[in-house]
## 1
Amino acid sequence: MNNGHDIYNQRRKQSFPDEEDSCSNDEKPISDSTHKRKTRTMPEFYTDGRIRRKISSPMEASTIRTETKSGSDKLLWWDECDGPDYPEDEFKKEFRMSKSTFEFICSELNSVIRDEKDVTIKQRVAVCIFRLAMGEPFRLVSKRFGLSIQTCRESVLEVCSAIRTVLMPKYLRWPDANSLRKTKQEFEAISCIPNVVGSMHTAHIPVSPPPAPSLAAYLNKNQTEKDGKTSYTLTVQGVVDHSGVFTDVCMGWPGSMTDDQVLQTSALHQRANGGFLNGVWVVGSKGYPLMDWVLVPYNQRGLTWTQHVFNEKISEIQRVAKEAFMRLKGRWCCLQKRSDFKLQDLSVVVGACCVLHNICEMRGDGFECECEWGSEFVVVEDDDEMVGEVDLRSVSSMEARDAIAHNLLHHAICY
């Protein structure tokens, strides 16, 4: 009795009598082996009586379902992710954190997020974190989770607001005395500069063109010139400790503002003026002013060797903040794209991203910025600094900087 393959070949020869002649004798073994190899791989797609679909990319748009033998039980993609057999590395790829960290966040927010029959707390948190991580449009997120676009949008804002209210006071705050002591030691170990309690940097988040009255304020001239197209952004100023954990953030100011202007509007600046940072340094780039508590590199031409060595050590500390922002944007790809949130809501979303970044860092959920998860991940280059005319603010700070630079030359291990 002919099997199905023989019947198929007979019918094909009847329909295409010259087809066999189009393949040379040398090509036939290759063609046959290719067919056999493909035939052998087919059973890989049939396991335990069900058809399994491999998720080739988190950016797929369709809702993914798995049908069991009976055909009566259908699971959404999220239900598979939430299952005990879902691979840890795949979960981390799509949510930028381990399963244990995800469960920890759900438990922390359990008392403040709505728990409904159709949408559980865990689903709402998953929708939010997935949207922040992948930056997908809401229409694709809704297909992923089998929820309406409106429900997905509401879930993201609800969870981000809860993170800001409940988790930010716990996981994004100025260090206590013991933590500051540790931070000073670690920064001094890499730079030989004493009393450094933070590394400061200002990044820019792209936004959609705002209403006409605000266009000029949000226009980022540096980015516009660099990309060759009009760019609108808002700013995020952050101070990090030696491990890249944010200890202070100021966000939401228009992208046309310089680093110096953003600093002056921040609560950190107000607290520092009240004596909060007496005797310690926060290290910034050339876009910030030299102040009694802000230490920046020499910016004039014709640097002496002493000044050059000092600038190199400042750049070592600055790198900590810049790399922290790279990990922040790498984890939460929504920060790399023009947001479809309203400007007043975007600050809440960015703040939630900073808190989630801290939780991941504190819990050891590492993140490598160099394409850890293939071509889907985009390495974010450092933002161009918005540098304005920075006036001299303090003669005493100039003298203190000169003294530090001079002392570095007496530590041979530092250069």
## 2
Amino acid sequence: MEKKRKFAENIIKLAGIVLGATLLGKMFVALGFPETNIVVVYLLAVLLVARFTQGYQYGILSAVASLLCYNYYFTAPYHTFAVNDSSYLITFVIMLVTSLVTSAMTTKEKLLTKEAKERGEESQILYMLSSRLSDAADIEAVLRIAAESISLLFQKNAGCIYVGRQGAPVYIQQVGGEQIHRSVQKPAELRGKFSNLRTEYLEDEDAWYYPVNGREHLLAVVEIDKAVRTEELEEKKKFLHSILENIAMALDRIEITIERVRDRENMERERERANLLRAISHDLRTPLSGIMGTSEMLMDMTEKEDKRQALLQGIYQDADWLKAMVENILSLTRLQDGKILIHKEPEAVEEIIGCAVAHVERSFPDRVIQVETPEEFRLVPMDAKLIEQVITNLLDNAVKHTAPGEAILVSARYTEDSVVITVRDEGEGIAEEDVPNLFHLFYTSKTRSADVKRGIGLGLAICETVVKAHGGTIVGRNRTDRKGAEFLFALPLEEGEKADVQRKNTGH
């Protein structure tokens, strides 16, 4: 419809200008002007048509129409297209060629002027966009600037939808001179469409959709009204891509800023929590030691048959548990702050395991812990006290999550570059929702039974911190051979130890 309207406008302009030139020629004849003046009038008409119509074809058409009108009205025989004087043929050819050249030059100049104007406008839009985006403080501000700039570029409605990872999806649409905040329908589906995109853009009956890709993922989607023609999109393709790149850089910058602020806040919270825990734990150690000493002295002064003996034992055990928890908190906060240095010395794994097992069996004399160690004797670089604490915590965790009759096994084996220590039990295993959070500080399972509610989520967090400080790895999972859980941690061997293990494995 738009094309037909423009075609009609151009034809009317052409007909009007050629008709005007003809009337002016008639007036020149009446005034006795020579025919050369009439030729100049028609050349002017062709020039005007080329200037005020869109498309070189109208200039050519006006040149032909001017030639025919000149022949019909101003050369003998009049009011016919017949030519009696051969000299007129030369005039016609020169007039036609001159008209065509004039039309072509005018059309080209007009196109160059139009392109220069568009480039100037685009450069101005891009400059304003870059300047405004650099000042944008949040994601919504970027979307508003993007929607306004793209709407200005195409002179049509446009929108920008944020589907990145920092915050909820946001959709800003520029409709005329107003900006509308719309809801985003199915952002995950939108991400899915663009993650598998094989073309430059998507389209539906309402709009064109262009992706705004960041460093690692899709950041936003730009929406352009379908009233914009494909040809116009192609014409402004390069400039549109420049706008999309600027939007991507701005959104990337804001996402990075949000991540840094969040990380800084998390670090500050962790630091404050660690300082609070350290202060509380430090203040609790002395009174707990006093309670344990007093209860132990009272137990020695009380007959074993006395009912108070059991109460005193309970006080002592609870104080001992609290003291162990306090020591764990202090150890964890110091490790995380780097205040405990790892002093690695060559140690026998068997001895470390034996000390940890003995410690746990003293606390739980009714439990039997099985031990399996390699036949070959090896020395592994480690901080013996800290690794013993890791094994003790893992065994303590196994005891709390198994019944008295269920087996607990601690074993060690060598690989080419590490020693792997495993603690297995035959309990109920680990709930699937708990597996990703096993080593998170203060995480406790919501599915465990009431008899193991005493833990506060410190033991496994300490294990992970110590093992990582040794350059090792630790995992927790359910057993595949039977019910129960297993925890494995690996400590790296020194180069000399690796070579020894490799020689043993190859038989050399």
## 3
Amino acid sequence: MAAAAAARWCPGGRWALCLCLCAALLPRPARGLTDRLYCGRRVCYEVLGVSRQASKAEIARAYRQLARQYHPDRYRGEPAGGEGGGAQAAHEKFLLIAAAYETLKVYKQEQEEELKKKMAIDPRWKRYRRWMKNEGPGRLTFIDD
């Protein structure tokens, strides 16, 4: 009965082709936007404990602080039987922190490059840079009459 319905819906019995086309036309999730901000199931900013408006320096500072705390060679926390999970849990936390830092570092670098491209394309920035180079604020400009 399902084959008959598929044959009616897709003439010639090409129901598999129609199914593939329908699957291809379904909306896709916006993965490009979310992959950059998430580290597994957690937001990378939350892993490092910084705000979304944090600069590259603030992100690096938070990473170094957490890396010193959870690095497997330096970890002096609770033993494995404790509530925190011991050295293995610290190692996993360190890997999560490192992944969050790398993700955000690349994301911030791409944002800076995008801004530089916008500045290079916009002709007003060329005029501004030329003005800053030749005259700029605080430089003397002599006008001969």
## 4
Amino acid sequence: MTRKQSGNGVKEIVSRRMDVATARVLLLAGIAGGVAACGGAQGEPPEEVADRGDGYRRVVNVEVQRVETTNFTSTIPLTGVALAMRDVMVSAEEAGVVRRVLRDKGSPVRAGNAILRLDDTILRAQVRTATAKAEYDDEVWERRRKLYEEDGIGSEVAYHEARATAEQSRGNLEALQARLDRTTIRAPIRGTLNDRLVEVGTMVSPGTVVARVVQADTIRIMSGVPERYALHVAVGADASVSFDVLPGEVFAGSMTYVGAVVDLDARTFPVELTLPNPGGRIKPGMVADVSVTQGEMAAAIVVPRQALVSMEDGQVVFVAEEAGGETVAVARRVEVAASQGNDVVIGSGLAPGDRLVVVGQQGLTDGDRVRVVAGEGGAS
């Protein structure tokens, strides 16, 4: 190979490498242009750069929402447990053997209805004896009274002894009669005999639990409220209650009890709500989702939370306004009056009719040119 041929080969190799490098540069430039066209951040409208003749100034595509007023209700979400309005364990008051079962579990009962009856043989005999003695002592007292008060016969001591004996006999009879009555165990409240814990032949003593009566036509919801809401919860507050096992159903209730002491471990204070339960669809023990009404505002300005932009000295929103034949973003400092989930109530800084920037506001600065590409107000 001659020197000339060798030189031509080197030039050919260099030329090929330059072509490859040029292709890479063009490829990278194309990728960069594609990224710029799609927007720098996911979900943000693309930016454009326009030459106004006095320097470069960007134009940001945004979406806006027309500010309107609406009624706003803030709530406190809680989790609670459904309990029967009254749940009573019925105990025996006398010792004895169960002789009769008068109502089985699941039966509706009224206050005073007999549930069980104990063996009362011995007590009946004692009542008969006490009755006879009380009647005899009454007769003796009556004779002594007449002799002493009307005829002046007998001593004052005998007179008082006869009266005391008669009164003692009557008291003893009344006590035995009460014990006899207690051998019939009765429902203390209206409700449902939820359980019967003894059978015929069971020996019971005073205090033995024999049955359970539940009154669930009204339900209590027990829950705990975080201490930060202590000033926003009061007796009488409205609440809505739902249950996972009853999808689509919402029950209205009201706050009937607010605890006065915060639990030191859970940092909550107890509350209780009541709600009607006709038909018994709500069962005691169910887990409840509760929303307690914290406050209501009429004609409130409510905006999505993502429209707010946090600054070092507070929060601002951006409003699209027309100025000098172009649309610009104007920063408005706002005060938040309340919030609920993704909804924020603006206390000051916005007015009905403003075109609030809800997409593309992150990274905006006061006075930036914007193009409204979607939302109330159309494109400009």
